[in-house]
Amino acid sequence: MSIHVDLELIALVAAIVGFGTAAQFLAAKYRVPSVLFLIVAGITIGPEGLGIITTETFGDALSTIVGVSVAIIVFEGSFRLTFETVRTAPQAAKRLITIGAALSFFGTALTVRLFLNANWDVAFLVGALLVATGPTVITPILAVISVREEVATILETEGIINDVTAAILAVVIFKTMTAQELAPRGFIVLFIERLGLGIITGLAIAGVVWYLLTRVDLPEQAAPQTARLLALAGAVIAFAIADSVFSEAGIAAAATTGFTLGNLKLPHREGILRFNQDVTLLVLSFIFITLAALLEFSELRALGPAGLAVVGVVTVLLRPLSVFISTTGGEFPIRERLFISFIGPRGIIPASVATLFAIRLETTTPPTDPAGADILLGTVFLIILVTDVVEAGFARQIAAAFGVVESAE
């Protein structure tokens, strides 16, 4: 019996990988961000389609699979983010990840509270998760459209940094929901604990990897492969160590490992980068399809017109407002500010963390907040679906409409 089940699971995993590869192929051929094809593939094989994948398919292992996958994805994005890029990044990028993120957080929470009549804790949880745009959706967009380097930098910087901070903030808020005795001061302590542990762990693991690659003699033929594997293993190990102490501290650890290694002089750096990109594409495809497959339209329909109103406020009002406030000062012309305003798709971090928290809210004894779980999951997935289909799917058209496409020379 177990052999039969295992064979079914292997066939399912193979099918997901196949769909993911096909999505990447179609994205490359038609120059459309791959996330659009990945979502369609996920819905096709999920409960709303063929029913091949359900919430029971991977069971409790899903959160672990998602966690490790997110660590790999974040590591790859942060590895490409050099200190020089951050140091010389436009001031607008720094304002967008601080002032803009705060505006998005509080504005989204207030919107969810008013339109969906959600409890404040659920509203703030949704607000925290939807701060994150993320490299998982931004990178595919920038791969198919060519924009000015400063525009690409602000989008990539926002995605990578907000992915980490949003995940940690969401975990801290969730902790306050399940431990009502937590004082306001404890809220700040939890955030600092997770971020601090992640940074320390990431620095330590990055130091070990750097030492092994630069101070240990390796056979010339084996050195490139060893470098690639060590770097990737470092990210997963850093994630596992930090996450075993504080939930979601692992994301900060993986990001710190990637950023640190990406700014050190490593042998075979280009090989490491290409290998990370290939692995990330595979992992991204698997996770995006799996999470999209768990999407149930009944949760979206339950939100009704109020859910669509939340989407409208978040995408058409809050996002442009945060971008325009962050990009004051003449660094960006109006057409680029409009483009950045309408390129804010959400990705893996909100989807995976929302799924995990919704399950916990529904399965605790007694259930913590079943109604809040439905609002959380429905709102987050509705905004992911709309922003990925519209903003990612039509990114080239949006860029062309605002005239920000750079001509290839």
UniProtKB/TrEMBL annotation:
TM region(s), chain numbering: 6-28, 35-55, 61-83, 95-116, 122-147, 188-213, 225-242, 279-297, 303-326, 338-359, 371-390
Pfam families, per database record: Na_H_Exchanger
Superkingdom to which the source organism belongs: Archaea
Keyword Transport in record: yes
GO CC aspect terms: plasma membrane
Alphabetized GO MF terms: antiporter activity
Gene Ontology terms describing biological process: proton transmembrane transport
Topology in the lipid bilayer: Multi-pass membrane protein
Protein's cellular compartments: Cell membrane
Domain Cation/H+ exchanger transmembrane per the UniProt entry, residue ranges: 19-385
Keywords, ordered alphabetically: Antiport, Cell membrane, Ion transport, Membrane, Transmembrane, Transmembrane helix, Transport
Name of this protein: Sodium/hydrogen exchanger family protein
Organism lineage: Archaea, Methanobacteriati, Methanobacteriota, Stenosarchaea group, Halobacteria
